[in-house]
Amino acid sequence: MKRKKKLLKQVKKKIKEEKQTLILKQALKN
Predict the structure, then answer these.
(1) pTM (2 decimals)?
(2) How far apart are CA 19 and CA 16, in angstroms?
(3) DSSP-derived secondary structure letter, 30
(4) What SS3 class is residue 15?
(5) DSSP 4
(6) pLDDT of residue 19
(7) Given pLDDT bands bounded at 50, 70 and 90, which one contains residue 29?
């Protein structure tokens, strides 16, 4: 259970970073 929570945190962090990267790429395009 504890391990699952930790994994979820890592996944959320990764998603957040990927979103920021996408936003940056789009900002550079415009």
Answers:
(1) 0.62
(2) 5
(3) -
(4) helix
(5) H
(6) 98
(7) confident
